[in-house]
Design brief:
The protein is of the alpha/beta class and 784 residues long. The chain is built from 23 helices and 30 strands. Strands 6, 7, 8, 9, 10, 11, 12, 13, 14, 15, 16 and 17 form a twelve-stranded mixed beta sheet that branches. It has a seven-stranded mixed beta sheet with strand order 27-28-24-23-22-29-30, with helices on both faces. It has a five-stranded mixed beta sheet with strand order 4-1-3-2-5, covered by helices on one side. It starts with 7 loop residues before the first strand and ends in a 10-residue tail after the last helix.
């Protein structure tokens, strides 16, 4: 029915986007009351349904404001309009209770840091939620980690087991209240409660609520390690200024040299331990509250962090409190003094997913924690902290997309059929897609055992329940030995789905960059995919690739000249061996004055020589990540790596020391193919090393040389194809020096450069590219 030009009208609106769990219905109610309009609003499986009736000018204004000025945490992606017959209803507007609980495509918001209003109540002795560790409202608090189904209502969250007291029920039912239909709403009388469970020998005793918190603060102040239950899992916390506590946590967790993240009590404390730009302050204090990589400050008047926090790194991972419990751990005015900076690291053993279950926490964190500060609100889905860095131009680059960002969807440039992409074996994160949207799951970690595989299954089930996506296709990496690929095959067989679409690793990286930037794939790009490992079409290890790619296909235009990788994974863990292999490939003698040669034992050198000479267990690799490892050892930065990317990070840290002190660079050779040959780089580096050039200068010149090779190869690709858009992707481009130098050179040379921002450049973003490539391949046959 067409609405009359004037007079009274009735209109049905279907609002889609992030519109549940963000105070959207009370916002609609207040807006309708402002214009004295009649009708109702309610949640559905697809979003929010509104029927509105009143004078045409008022209805038109209402509709415009609804789309243009949503509540702070809401995002409106579409508003459908349908004119209805006028009913003549009076001037009442109601909020309907949700009765439908089928899955839909409503966008549930991520968990959000405590808002300023709730923090004021937390600190106000006159407020009934004074010191309540679970204070929240429609503008903040948990969403993803408590939701069990959609539409998002209390009955479909882990708060369902907590009946509201009369006072909370009044707030929940009052459209004018900030807590109207805030599903996690609670207070000390009706909400979750804290418990402290001490290990033997700590001197602490089991306690509840205020006493539990007081004992936990005392334990932290006395150098103990406390497992703290957060939004998406347990964390292990200790005083970041206590060297013994930090060393104990590192030893118990078998952390090796990997840096710890620290939580600062407030922004002023963060300023005292790290240098902050305005963009970094905004990232730290935003509602997502990720860990932000910052430049560590020389100790001054503020807290002096233990040397064991981030050994050998110029960067510090910093975050601010994002739950009321975190705020209380640091203390309110009048509390006994305690640590102002805490180590806050994932509550798990090395290689395992973050612990979420309370009973499992007591088992899996035994021996790591001296006490458990827990509560009785169930975690519906694990969700580790997100991690980002801020570039010099102020733009953010997510390195781990998880809490605060999941399940916020990405809009796809081309529609896809319902599909699941399982990602890779490192930094695993899955991705579900349907139509024009894709949803990343939370960070799972490295797929090394049954626990992580089980976590991946649970993450998929939870995300599917919230998005309403039932996969009709599964995508995975082409690597025949990946656990994630084997999981995809089992998943397809169990569900009777087609055999998984297997996507080449670096093609997926480039496709992820295209999708993030909204490119429809009709024109290929020059994809620069640099990482540590990817299964190549020829059965070798790729990782220094220039591919001409769109979603449907790719062509290997150029790559790094391969070198042997002796020993596979054992070689990766020993950068000094990789250095010797690169020297051998470049025809450079293993002279004892070279740091890498000196770092290898006589036995190692003898075995390596035999392997390289007879090509035993020496798969060729074009990996740029492995070249970074080799150069890290040649400069003396890292000879043995206890964790992924440790050598490359040490090399970047070394290069930062000479970033502004030297402008030289090592030039790669360009062989037929074309191929970038590092042999001239290695010869020049060795010559400088023998002349006594500082290691930091060697590292900086290498970084500039790699950026120069990127620009040179892209110019060759443009000359051959006419393509002018370059995508920089893969884990090596998490290196800020390399990414920013490469971008500057390419931009100056007239290229359009695509860099990752909302999607990690490393394997944490791989699943999005798999999803997009799989959507463009012919429909495969059924799995057998």
């Amino acid at each position: 029915m067409t609405a009359p030009a004037t007079g009274r009208v009735r209109r049905r609106l279907t609002v889609r986007g992030t519109v549940q769990g963000v105070g959207f219905r009370p916002h609609v109610h207040r807006l309708a009351a402002e214009y004295a309009l009649a009708g109702f609003v309610g949640n559905t499986a697809d979003g929010v349904l509104v029927e509105i009736e009143g004078p045409l000018p008022d209805v038109e204004r209402f509709c415009a404001l609804l789309a243009e000025h949503p509540p702070p945490l809401a995002t409106v992606t579409a508003v459908g309009h349908e004119d209805l017959p006028v009913t003549g209803a009076g001037g009442t507007f109601t909020i309907q209770a949700t009765t439908e609980h089928a899955a839909g495509r409503t966008q549930l918001p991520p968990d959000t840091a405590t808002c300023a209003d709730c923090l004021r109540e937390l600190a106000d002795p006159a407020d009934r939620r004074h010191r309540h560790p679970f204070v929240t409202c429609t503008h903040c608090g948990p969403r993803f980690t408590i939701a069990t189904a959609m539409p998002y209502d209390r009955a479909a969250t882990t708060m369902a087991r907590f009946p509201m007291c009369p006072a909370c029920a009044r707030e929940y039912g009052d459209p004018l209240d900030r807590r109207f239909h805030a599903q996690p709403v609670a207070c000390p009388d009706c909400g979750p409660g804290l418990s402290l469970i001490p290990a033997e020998g700590t001197g602490a005793r089991p306690a509840r609520d205020a006493e539990a918190l007081a004992q936990a603060r005392a334990l932290l102040a006395h150098g103990r390690i406390v497992a703290v239950k957060g939004l998406g899992g347990y964390h292990l916390a200790c005083d970041a200024t206590d060297p013994r506590a930090v060393a104990t946590l590192r030893a118990r967790k078998e952390r090796g040299g990997k840096a710890f993240a620290v939580m600062c009590a407030d922004l002023a404390t963060a300023e005292s331990v790290a240098h902050l730009t305005d963009a970094e302050r905004a990232a730290l204090t935003g509602p997502e509250r990720p860990i932000v990589l910052l430049r560590a400050r020389t100790p001054g008047d503020g807290p002096r962090l233990a040397d064991g926090i981030a050994p050998g790194s110029p960067h510090l991972g910093v975050l601010l409190p994002y739950t009321p419990l975190h705020t209380l751990l640091f203390g309110l005015p009048g509390d006994p003094p305690g640590p102002r900076v805490l180590v806050l690291t994932s509550g798990n053993r090395s290689g395992e997913p973050i612990v979420t279950d309370d009973a499992q926490a007591l088992i899996r964190l035994a021996g790591l924690a001296d006490a458990w500060l827990t509560h009785d609100r169930t975690i519906a889905a694990p969700c580790d902290d997100s991690l980002l860095r801020v570039r010099s131009d102020g733009s953010p680059q997510l390195l781990r997309r998880s809490r605060g960002y999941v399940p916020r969807p990405l809009t796809l440039p081309v529609p896809v059929r319902p599909a699941l992409a399982v990602g890779g074996d490192l930094k695993n994160a899955l991705c579900l897609g349907a139509d024009d949207q894709a949803w990343f799951g939370p960070h799972i970690g490295d797929m090394g055992d049954l626990a992580t595989l089980d976590a991946a299954r649970r993450a998929e089930a939870h995300l599917a329940a919230l998005t309403g996506v039932t996969p009709r296709l599964i995508a995975a990496d082409r690597h025949p030995g990946y656990q994630s690929t084997a999981h995809a095959r089992r998943r397809a067989a169990e569900a009777g789905l087609p055999a998984p679409a297997l996507v080449q690793h670096h093609h997926a990286h480039i496709a992820a960059a295209l999708a993030e930037h909204g490119l429809d794939g009709t024109t290929p790009v020059i994809g620069v995919a640099f990482d540590g490992t990817g299964y190549g079409d020829d059965g070798t290890v790729w990782g220094g690739e220039i591919l001409l790619a769109d979603y449907t296909a790719y062509r290997r235009f150029a790559h790094l000249v391969p070198a042997p990788l002796p020993g596979g994974d054992a070689g990766v863990a020993n950068p000094c061996r990789q250095a010797l292999a690169r020297l051998w490939a470049a025809g450079i003698d293993w002279a004892p004055d070279l740091p890498s040669v000196a770092a290898c034992t006589d036995t190692e050198r003898a075995v390596l020589h035999g392997q390289l000479t007879h090509k035993i267990a020496c798969v060729p690799t074009s990996s740029m990540g492995r070249l970074f490892d080799a150069v890290s050892s040649l400069t003396g930065a890292c000879h043995r790596a206890g964790r992924e990317a440790e050598a490359a990070l040490a090399l970047e840290a070394l290069a930062l020391e000479a970033r502004d002190a030297d402008s030289g660079e090592y030039a790669f050779g360009f062989a037929a193919g074309p191929r970038a040959d590092p042999a001239p780089v290695l010869r020049a580096l060795v010559a400088d090393l023998r002349r006594g050039v500082p290691a930091a200068v060697l590292a900086a010149r290498f970084h500039r040389g790699v950026a120069g090779a990127v620009a040179g190869l892209c110019r060759r690709a443009r000359a051959a194809t006419g393509l002018t858009t370059v995508a920089l992707t893969g884990g090596v481009f998490a290196n800020a020096l390399l990414e920013e130098d490469s971008t500057a050179r390419l931009t100056a040379d007239g290229f359009t450069v695509l860099r990752h921002g909302r999607v990690p450049p490393n394997d944490g973003g791989l699943a999005l590219g798999q999803l997009m490539v799989a959507a463009h391949v012919p429909r495969p046959t059924r799995a057998r």
